[in-house]
Fold:
Amino acid sequence: MGRVGLTTERLTRAGAELADEVGFEQVTVSALARRFDVKVASLYSHVKSSQDLKTRIALLALEELADRGADALAGRAGKDALIALADVYRDYARQHPGRYAATKLPLTPEAAAGSAGGRHAEMTRAILRGYDLTEPDQTHAVRLLGSVFHGYVSLELAGSFSHSAPDSQESWARVLDALDALLRNWPAP
Amino acid sequence: MGRVGLTTERLTRAGAELADEVGFEQVTVSALARRFDVKVASLYSHVKSSQDLKTRIALLALEELADRGADALAGRAGKDALIALADVYRDYARQHPGRYAATKLPLTPEAAAGSAGGRHAEMTRAILRGYDLTEPDQTHAVRLLGSVFHGYVSLELAGSFSHSAPDSQESWARVLDALDALLRNWPAP
DNA sequence: GCATTTGCCTAAAGCCTTTAGGCAAATGCA
DNA sequence: TGCATTTGCCTAAAGGCTTTAGGCAAATGC
Structure:
């Protein structure tokens, strides 16, 4: 057999596609080898371990997501920016459920440091500049927004909102309305 | 070897303990067999599969959590109730991380139907009776609260809030203050 | 053109899941 | 109490995923 041209990069991308197709949990070095029609052991020259592969997929997804967020935020402020960033997360999760799941993989401190995690936090802070919050409330608000985005998208993806009225899309819009109202009217301690 | 007294019930409870010790992902039929000092195959008379075991642990955790919630809600209303239920989730997740992770296991529709999931939704609705919301805003608010509880607790458990000031405990309190304010002042569409 | 590097392969060990079939302890019933 | 049945745990075995070691041939570099 000739060479297929395996690469850490290609394996990571293919792993991300595989995750979207079968779920992040089901991403396996074996499945990836099958996809390239190559023996399993061959992959171990390019990724250290199954864990390493998953971490790389997570880092890729975090970067993609941060890139989309940056695009969406460009030129927007206030509620507009809030909705834009929120929709980036939700849309990404719906379009790429496996990759989105990957972003929730617990990272080692070193991996986290080299990840786009910081960019995500920074984007949320950027949104809050359109509101009138000072520290420490700004940090509390960052955490609240992160919780809502992550929580809502996770629950929606798990189907929690799909078996009752009203439509999840409608709740999403109203939840963002509510968050905007809350940020404009943040309670004093 | 004599009989150890394996039971679906005992396996489920031991599985939940194991989950809290090593993580829900690491709960394995093999590990459980080791814990009972019994051969792996023996467990298969009591649980159908590894998936079945995990589902049972998830259902157990959902029940425990609902029980705690019901206790906490008894005799409380308004912000008091909100904080009480929120703390139940957060405390449970901190005391029983493996069980908490189990509650996020995607369930089949049948399993979900027989689960305490309905009680959880009902408890959140009960809290909202202390505020002045009518449908469909009440449902939007239910989804928001669920998202915040789930999202905050997940992120906190993943360590997202542990490497920066202020303390997560403080953010939690202020986030609940903010939610209370929001519910008292829910924006019109 | 030859030496070195690189890429994928075979082999093998270890662990997890799951099914099949067996023996002995517990239980139930005369 | 004695015997039959059920029940509980065991051995055996097959199949899948992970990971390491060592080998050969294609690609690369001088």
Q: What stands out?
A: The CA atoms of residues 86 and 149 of chain A lie 6 Å apart. Residues 1-6, 38-39, 41-43, 45-46 of chain A lie near DNA strand C (CB under 10 Å from a C1'). The two ends of chain A are 69 Å apart (CA to CA).
